Amino acid sequence: MLLQDDPFDHVGSILVNISHKEAGRKLLLDPKRGLLKQILRQFDSISPLRRKGVSGTVRNCCFQAKDQLLDLLSISEFLWPAILLPVAGSKVFSVHDTSKMPLELSSALSIEREPWDDPEIRVQALDAIYMIILQDAGRRAFWSINGPRILQVGYEDEEDPKVMEAYERVGALVVHGGMSMADEPSSETSN
Questions:
Q1: DSSP string of 93-120?
Q2: Which SS3 state, helix, strand or coil, does residue 190 take?
Q3: Which residue among 79, 139, 176, 181 has its CA within the 20 to 30 Å range from the CA of 168?
Q4: Would you say 170 and 130 are in contact if contact means Cβ atoms under 8 Å apart?
Q5: Boundaries of each Protein HGH1 N-terminal domain copy (predicted)?
């Protein structure tokens, strides 16, 4: 069966462009509008172009984590799966591991799944995680959902050097709780 062209695939690229600017990110993160929550729901799309657009938009919005962390975490039931599932690998997690996760993560990680084949999406997801956990409250939230274990399992199967570098940057922050300026993700927003 051939997939029909999705007339809305281009919307992902438009959202990435909107999120390049601080004003666009603030608009997308405004909790009264609920836009980012709606965008995150598109992460399950079968369209690789749409998934890449959502991933880039989420990454760009995480540049606001310092000032709008609570807005990001207020939609954590959508945010964490969108940024953790692409980097969780394809292994089935143990009951012990999933018992420490919220349902939206534990149910997805308790079954066999296809690995995310786009390394750009995996790097964007790791960049988003990095920017969130730069904040103390973000780091606590990440630990509370067993985030470090998810990344550990995903890292074990990773083969792409750029993705491995992004895992290691996040891992260093998780372990040391601090950062050096050289470790920051690029301030360039996604294309």
A1: PPHHHHTTS-HHHHHHHTS--PPP--HH
A2: coil
A3: 79
A4: yes
A5: 6-122
Q: 0.70 exceeded by the pTM? A: yes
Buried b (16+ CB within 10 A) or exposed e, 98-120: beebeebbbebbeeeeeebeebb
HEC string of 128-166? HHHHHHCCHHHHHHHHHCCHHHHHHHHHHHCCCHHHHHH
* Distance, CA of 105 to CA of 103 (rounded, Å): 5
Rounded Cα–Cα distance for residues 8 and 46 (Å): 12
For 139-177, write each residue's pLDDT tens digit: 999 999 999 999 999 999 999 999 999 999 999 999 987
Weakest mean pLDDT among 13-22, 43-52, 78-87, 182-191: 182-191
**CA 17 to centroid of chain Cα atoms:** 18
CATH 3.40.50.150 given to domain 13-183: no
Residue from 122, 108, 110, 105 nearest 158 by CA: 122
DSSP H or E run through 121: helix 119-133
